[in-house]
Amino acid sequence: MTAKEVVLAYWKAMESNDFHKGSEWLSEGFECYWPQSSELIIGRKNFAEMNTNYPANGPWRFCVNSIVCEGNKVVTDVDITDGSVNARAITFHTVENGLITRQTEFWPDNYDAPKWRRQWVKIVKSVFSIAISGIILSLPISCGSDNRETASFDEITVPEYEISIADSFGVELGDSLNMIGSINGLCHHPDGSILMLDRPSFRIRVIPTEGDPQLISRKGDGPGELLSPQAICALHDGRILASDEMKLEVMAFDISGEYLGNYFTTDRYVPFRMYPVDSSSIVGSMIGMEMSNEGVVISSVVGRFDEASEPSVVFDSREWNWPSPEMYTEIGLMDFAADLEGNVFIAPDNTEYLILVYGQDGEELQQIERVDVNRMPKTREEIQQEIDDFEEWAVQDQAYTGGYEPSPFHQLISLAGTDAEGNLWVVRHDSGTDCLFDVWSPSGSLIRTARLSRNEEDPDLIFTVDRYGIDAATYDSYQFQRVYMLNLDMSEDGL
Fold it and tell me: 487 has which bridge partners?
């Protein structure tokens, strides 16, 4: 068992209120230190006896708010109550050989917010809690594996705010400035303009905060012209980047549309998604192909690119020996986003709620999980229809040799991006007609949810979040194409 599995098993055993059973997850020489009272409990027997004799008004319940793991060190934030006493324990666990050998535990007290600072804060009574009691669910509980064990959870509640549509752009019929061919990329420029990649028209559309829309580039093989555009983003210095698969380059433009030259060129592939990191770097995803002794190897990389086609840092790397029908499934399951500081968020499988968070240097920092959110199985009919649709599309792909098997689960999440505070916005796909977002702080805490109310006849949307705002776009290229500027209402009335 991993360190995280051991600690979660310990809290689950404590929930039974049989504290001798809970102490079975402690070593013989276990030590528990309470710095606030300077007490040291030595030995698991003393720990069990002390908890058994602790004054209580009813059974103790344990609600795990969060858990962070690095190696054999685990930190938990746990709410504890007997129905009368409400306490909170911040516990630093050390795990060795499958047992907890030491705990340092802090018991912070709640207090009323001082009046002097009320003009700058909001009092939020909702509490995010994952309780080890209630409905039994399947829980991924390892720091670095996909092993699953059962645990149970209470309702998770955080403040929920409403999102509304503030404005939109795009007409069903009209002139070339306002009629969109297809929305294949969406982001903001530092001046607040919305940038949109319109692949069928070979254009980058600029929707300014004021004034008329503008067009950047055109179809062609000359400098600054587009042949097969894949992705766009805007660096913090104002340069607009566009990757082109046929020209094998990432081109740079200014907001007026002037071509500034290459960001980088490559002899093989270009990023098909890009996020700006600073004024000179991006985080992007690229597909590659190499020859080896075993044949053709196809690779997928999410990395940081510093004005060069080779990544300076690799956050995720995968390889398949061609022919590989698994490649088509697995590439579509991975999603990623990056924040302003160069931290990267990767969902290895978007059919489950698990996100890996990496620092600028590529080291894994933490994991974000919503273990109370169930995966959504597909029916046999849905799986067969997906196979049929893929086989029809794959006629044009000479690399495909058959055998495609889609995931047995529907997409559960997608990563919309990070806002000005570095919060990660996760789109939930299990919320029915409405569009629901989970918003996670840089420390990995769920701080709020947001909801965009929708009707069944409304088109499906894709979302993008960055430091300048929240936008949405029509997902289906066969539907009327439109960009929506969204507003998050965080007033008291918006709760």
Answer: 164
- Contact between 263 and 244 (Cβ < 8 Å): no
CB atoms within 10 A of CB 249: 18
**For strand 229-234 and strand 61-70, is the pairing parallel, antiparallel, or unpaired?**
unpaired
Residue 247 phi, psi dihedral angles, 5° rounding: -85, -10
Q: 3-157: what fold?
A: Nuclear Transport Factor 2; Chain: A, (3.10.450)
In this predicted structure, what is the pLDDT of residue 382? Answer: 93
Among 490, 489, 454, 488, residue whose Cα is nearest residue 474: 454
| CB distance 369 to 65 below 8 Å | no
CA distances (Å), origin 109, targets 85, 89, 117, 130, 234: 11, 10, 19, 20, 46
Q: Which residues contact 215 (CB under 8 A, 6 or more apart)?
A: 176, 177, 203, 204, 205, 206, 257
445 in Cβ contact with 398 (< 8 Å):
no
Name the phi and psi angles at 243, rounded to 5.
-90, 140
Using CA atoms, how far apart are residues 447 and 372, in angstroms rounded to an integer?
A: 16
Strand-pair partners of 204: 197, 216
Distance CA(143)–CA(95), nearest Å, equals 13
Could you tell me the residue ranges of all domains in the chain?
Answer: 3-157, 161-264+335-376+412-494
Distances (CA, A) of 304 to 274, 319, 358, 481: 10, 18, 12, 31
Locate 45 and state its tokens: 């027997």
Rounded to two decimals, the pTM is 0.69
Q: Is the peptide bond before 323 cis (omega within 30 degrees of 0)?
A: yes
Count of other CB atoms within 10 angstroms of residue 129: 18
Segments of 266-360 assigned E as strands: 273-276, 282-292, 295-305, 313-321, 335-338, 344-347, 354-358
Which tokens go with 370?
């919503």
Query: What single DSSP character describes residue 18?
Result: -
Q: Where are the beta strands (DSSP E) in 52-117?
A: 61-70, 73-81, 86-96, 99-106
What is the Cα 1 distance to its own chain's centre? Answer: 26
Look at residues 122, 98, 121, 140 and name the one whose alpha carbon lies nearest to residue 6. Answer: 98
User: Among residues of the chain, what percentage have pLDDT more than 90?
Assistant: 60
Q: What is the pLDDT of residues 131-143, one digit of tens each?
A: 333 322 233 333 3
Pairing mode of beta strands 229-234, 240-244: antiparallel
Mean pLDDT across 454-460: 87
Structure tokens at 398: 């000479």
CA–CA distance, 82 with 80 (Å, rounded to integer): 7
pLDDT of residue 495: 43
Kindly list the distances between the CA atom of residue 341 and the CA atoms of 279, 337, 365, 473, in Å, as whole numbers in the listed order.
11, 12, 14, 26
In CATH, what class is 161-264+335-376+412-494? Answer: mainly beta
Q: What is the pLDDT of residues 360-383, one digit of tens each?
A: 999 999 999 988 888 999 999 999
